[in-house]
Write a structure and sequence with these properties.
Layout: E1 6-11, H1 15-26, E2 31-35, E3 49-51, H2 55-65, H3 69-76, E4 77-83, E5 93-98, H4 100-112, E6 117-121, E7 124-130, E8 133-139, E9 144-152, E10 161-164, E11 167-170, H5 182-188, E12 194-200, E13 203-205, E14 215-217, E15 240-244, H6 247-254, H7 278-284, E16 292-297, E17 304-308, H8 316-323, E18 334-336, E19 339-345, E20 363-365, H9 375-393, H10 407-418, H11 442-452, H12 458-480, E21 482-483, H13 485-494, E22 504-505, H14 506-510, H15 517-520, H16 524-532, H17 537-548, H18 550-565, H19 585-594, H20 599-603, H21 610-619
Parallel strand pairs: 1-2, 1-9, 2-6, 9-20
Antiparallel strand pairs: 3-5, 4-5, 7-8, 8-9, 10-11, 10-19, 12-19, 13-17, 13-18, 14-15, 15-16, 16-17, 21-22
Length: 622
């Protein structure tokens, strides 16, 4: 039934598995994707959206390296927003609402059109391991499929247990069975495992909602897109809406707390801190009498609606009664109730930075099996696991992204160095070099690397180089071209900025806080340069960021370079951290416990802040 031996077998067809299979196959490895249901490849198990704060940067990074998530999102998007535009560019984060059915369909079609990628539908319930090296997988039918490397991307399916009130049943997702056998075998190999929890809200019938009572949440007037390839931006969009819970809703939900698996001890695992259930919000934030609910359509044509912010595992009758008391939901009809799910994960400190396990050679973990939450975090790990599996089989160097090179690098380094005891979610605050890791420059940072390893194609590299050349030329234009007071002063006056008395280089006026590219385009010479050189929105955005934030970018790059030099700065054995009173108490405690070998390693320990590292550096004369 199968090839004599595959190069890479990917177990699981979610976001991590799909990216892993695509990466390995596109780099030339004969790849088999094994999943329990071929109809749910790339399934959006929870909210119908990609991107968001820091997550949008990850999708752009995946795309820049040659992954598929950005392309699939653009092809299935129904709304696009750039979040945090009122803040600095390091915080700008793209987010798209997707058509759930089209998203999964596009993923399936993309993979089917990927050479070297085969498919098989069945449960994998064991691994073939010989002499400490993985050699394939075993299926529930008793089949053995051989491979040189295996990537496990099991999501929430490993011994998955679904909770709705006092009811519980095995399952990896609503309507799908859980996966058994793998956890038990890995424990026999010496792996440490744990349990985590996640949840999802009810899905409701949009025809039963009164949108006129809700707050409209439209997409951007001029929507952008995720992929750096020639995908199309949206020409029309679907609106989302917003409503709120109330004290009445909270009181109705509290009536079911005695039957809540979260509060009666049935659920013992930890859920995502930054995406709590509605009952957890009410319990933790008792002073708040209202919480936002985002009403998100599941697609272009379907009436199914996702109630973002109402994740719950309360009994279905309690969910229904409470939701009917939300403004606009007075006549709501359920498609299905919300639920919580517990599943096995493996603390990621058991992995190398390539995502290969330390205990079994050529075995890789990616996604929620590593304790993360979110489509984007999973997809990026799948991409990196697929890349590194292929590279190792071909005796090439590991592909590891540093913390100043990508959010993906921050994510993996956090997991490997710090581990996680709760579902890990990416935020811009987790990246100490976020000014370098912007969504607008992911292609400049990573496409050359993707091309070098054989994943990103020549066309991608060419587009990136053209963008960089045009942006550099535009920056030089601003640096070399002078502007007269009578031309620039009307612009300065319009933004309440001090007027100039003599001509000066354009870059000085452009660098002022309130002056934007839109203002500069009012100058004839600037608009003429844009038109003559056919500069698109990407180039204009990149140029503006580089000009206005050049000082911050240079400073952060300098800090990153310094840290690179500290990779070899050793900390003396038996160093007494207690004598450094300027260290925070937490830092002293963690440093004493972990005993890092280098300053760079110390900087990556959870609880050790950049100021703590500065104290160590000063003490060591650095």
């Amino acid at each position: 039934m199968f090839e004599k031996e595959y190069d890479v077998i990917v177990v699981g067809g979610g976001h991590a598995g799909a990216e892993a299979a695509a990466a390995a196959a596109n780099m030339g490895s004969k790849t088999l994707l094994v999943t329990m249901n071929l109809q749910t490849i790339g399934q959006m198990s929870c909210n119908p959206a990609m991107g968001g704060i820091a997550k949008g940067q990850i999708v752009r990074e995946i795309d820049a390296l040659g992954g598929y998530s950005g392309i699939v999102t653009d092809k299935s998007a129904i709304q696009f927003k750039m979040l945090n535009k009122s803040k600095g560019p390091a915080m700008w984060s793209p987010r798209a609402q997707s058509d759930r059915m089209r998203f999964a369909e596009e993923w399936r079609l993309m993979l089917e059109n990927t050479p070297n990628c085969d498919f098989y539908q069945e449960m994998v319930n064991g691994l073939i391991v010989e002499n400490g090296k993985v050699c394939g997988v075993k299926t529930s039918l008793g089949l053995e499929v051989r491979a040189k490397a295996v990537v496990l991307t099991n999501g929430t399916f490993l011994n998955g247990l679904i909770h709705i009130g006092e009811k519980q049943f095995g399952g990896g997702r609503a309507g799908e069975s859980s996966s058994t056998g793998i956890t038990e075998q890995l424990l026999d190999f010496g792996f440490e495992s744990g349990r985590m929890k996640t949840g999802t809200p009810p899905r409701v019938d949009g025809r039963s909602l009164d949108y006129s009572k809700m707050i409209l949440q439209p997409g951007d007037a001029i929507p952008e897109k995720f992929s750096y390839t020639q995908t199309e931006a949206l020409k029309q969009q679907r609106d989302c809406h917003m409503s709120h819970t109330s004290q009445l809703v909270h009181d109705l939900l509290k009536e079911g707390f005695d039957r809540s698996p979260m509060f009666n001890g049935r659920i013992k695992s930890i859920g995502p801190r930054y995406c709590p259930s509605i009952e957890d919000k009410i319990n933790r934030f008792a002073d708040k009498d209202s919480h936002q609910l985002f009403v998100e359509p599941e697609g272009w044509n379907t009436v199914e609606v996702y109630v973002n912010g109402f994740s719950t595992s309360l009994p279905e009758d309690v969910q229904f009664k409470a939701l009917r008391s939300v403004v606009g939901f007075e006549n709501v009809k359920f498609f299905r109730p919300g639920y919580a799910i517990e599943y096995d994960y493996f603390p990621p400190t058991q992995l190398k930075h390539t995502l290969e396990t330390k205990l079994v050679e050529n075995l890789y973990f990616a996604g929620q099996i590593n304790g993360t939450t979110g489509y984007e975090e999973a997809a990026s790990q799948g991409l990196m696991a697929g890349i590194n599996a292929h590279l190792k089989l071909n005796e090439k160097d590991d592909f590891i992204l540093k913390r100043d090179e990508a959010y993906i690098g921050v994510l993996i380094d956090d997991l490997i160095t710090k581990g996680t005891e709760e579902p890990y979610r990416m935020f811009t605050s987790r990246a100490e070099y976020r000014t370098l890791l912007r969504q607008d420059n992911a292609d400049l940072r990573l496409t050359p690397k993707g091309y070098e390893i054989g994943l990103a194609g020549k066309e991608r590299l060419k587009r990136m180089e053209e963008k960089q050349e045009k942006s550099n030329a535009f920056i030089k234009f601003f640096e070399k071209t002078s502007v007269l007071p009578e031309d620039i002063n009307p612009i300065l006056e319009s933004v309440d900025s001090a007027l100039v008395k003599q001509s000066d280089k354009m870059v000085k006026a452009f660098s002022r806080p309130k002056v934007t590219m839109k203002h500069m385009l009012q100058l004839d010479s600037v608009s003429a340069f844009v038109e003559e050189n056919n500069l698109d929105r990407e180039v204009l955005e990149q140029t503006e960021v580089q000009v206005k934030y050049s000082g911050y970018i240079a400073k952060e790059k300098n800090n990153a370079d310094k840290l690179h030099r500290l990779e070899d700065v050793k900390i003396p054995d038996n160093f007494d951290y207690s004598k450094l009173k300027s260290l925070s108490y937490e830092a002293r405690e963690k440093l004493e416990a972990i005993r890092p070998v280098t300053i760079a390693q110390a900087s990556r320990i959870s609880g050790v802040s950049p100021s703590d590292i500065s104290v160590l550096l000063v003490f060591m004369g650095r």
